[in-house]
Amino acid sequence: MRGVAMKLILAAALVVVCGLAAPVQAKPGNAENGEKIYEKRCLGCHGEEGDGLGPAAEYLIPPPRDFTLGLYKIKTTAFDDDIPNDDDLFRMIRDGMPGTAMPGWSDMLSEQEIWDLVAHLKIYAGLEEETPSKQLDYGSQVATSEDSVEKGRKLFHDGDRCSECHGAEGKGDAIKKLKNDNGDRTWPRNLTKPWTYRASSDPKDIYARISVGIPNTQMPSFADPKSKKKLSVEERWHIANYVVALTKKGLEVRPENTVVKAKRIDGEIPAAIDDQAWLQSEPVTFMLVPQIIAKDRFFTPANDTISVRALYNERDIAFLLEWDDRTKSIPGDAKAESIADPEMGQDAVMMQFPVTIPLGAEKPYFLKGDAGHPVNLWHWTSGTTEAEAAVAMLDGLGMAQQTPREDGGGGLTTGSGYQDGTWRVIMKRSLTTDDAENDLQFEEGRFIPIAFANWDGSNSEIDSRQTITTWYWLQLEPSASAEPYISGIVVALLVFGALVWWARGAARPGEAA
Ligand code: HEC
Ligand code: HEC
User: Fold this and answer.
1) Boundaries of domain holding 493
2) pTM of this prediction?
3) Is the CB of 120 under 6 A from ligand 1?
4) How are beta strands 259-264 and 472-476 bridged, if at all?
5) Which of 50, 157, 321, 353 has its CA 20 to 30 A from that of 399?
6) Are 132 and 139 in contact (CB under 8 A)?
7) Is 29 contained in some domain?
8) What are phi and psi of 309, to 5 degrees?
């Protein structure tokens, strides 16, 4: 597991390094060979005719690029030159477009093969005849500093320049409905999540996006002299530095983080979502993936991560869940409905635990349990104009078998709030109950399976159309008084292990090496 995690980190680091590498030298590609590779690797999404209508396209948001239009999103030619540089295409094929289905191909294709693809793609829109005449002017880069970030912050909010779409905190939560030039729904990027940037969060890339805009979408150019919100070269660098500084800290997914550590505290568990006491618990962030196993399958999620903190005392355990959601989905609310998809539900989150802590590695089926392994489902919903936010306890025996408790909450209490594109929800229960047959009984020190599900109601995420995580672990960190005892056992085990190893070696002197 360690090894795999390490490889993932190294791979991610490599991607970052490659992304920032010196500009690639454009090489002539062989369009004929490019066509052959295209048919094998790209057609499934981008379509036989290059029109973006491959068999997989209907499941993808954003949809695959229609190459016949010759309009590319990530380019470094000037805003008023539609034609991208060959390097731009090369780079997108090599690195892919994070936050979309567009994969990077550096592992599978050689540089020459990627150039061949570039030559082939250009033919769809007759770009092989043309060369871009105007390049983006980078001026001289302003290094980041407190002063530059502060200047950038002011420019970002000045006249609602960027916050108009990206929201007060940059989470892309401004309340309006944006469409791209094809009439498809688009969302402003959540600028606090650099892993969703189509290019990268390197200041140079951000500078390029601010200067050029993202063609075919609502992201405008701020170098365009016709723009009322035009920015000088220097101002664009300040904003780029500010955007880099918006990055979420401590709330990114780390493959090595698989355990939610509940921290033991003295006194009451905080009831308010913004209570400083929560900061005692180290947050862990998990990837949410769309539920594509049970019917209705679902391929186009809006939210991608959920962060968890946990605290407990001698009586109760409580979780603070936090996730970015661009829309507060309150059915019945006219403003919320005006930006939502036609079929709108409540926002919701669910925690899942086995009823019995497994002794070994055996866990219930991760989709809401199975007949032999019942689960407890803690289900919070954001409410409607008629009903408050609420929490319910369900008994799960599988995706199609979830029974709400007769008393509703099953001993759960909740608190919640939505601000600037982020939901924060508390769910709390006593550590033990008098119904051990149906309720998980929390125990200090044990590794307890825990999983999550999430719904963005405005994105028509209802019932089985949800995002999920796999099983992770929850551990109630042993209280200080128990620690010497635990480490005593660990030391004893280590000594015992060493003795066994030594005894085996001693028994077979010939093999001792
Ligand atoms: C699994 C689906 C999938 C496959 C396979 C795929 N793409 Fe894409 N591709 C996409 C999607 C989706 C987008 C649009 C992303 C966006 O709009 O943000 C895209 C966008 C692009 C772009 C546009 C870049 C830009 O700046 O606008 C290029 C170029 C591209 N793909 C080339 C390729 C090539 C070449 C292949 C085959 C080697 C390929 N793609 C395979 C899904 C795919
Ligand atoms: C009218 C709405 C609008 C305004 C104003 C706007 N943006 Fe955007 N922005 C968008 C949209 C929409 C996208 C996502 C486009 C896509 O890929 O579909 C986006 C994407 C981005 C990205 C993502 C780049 C990447 O690689 O994925 C950055 C960075 C960004 N905007 C920064 C800014 C900054 C800085 C400003 C102000 C100077 C600004 N935006 C103003 C709508 C807007």
Assistant:
1) 479-513
2) 0.86
3) no
4) parallel
5) 321
6) no
7) yes
8) -125, 150
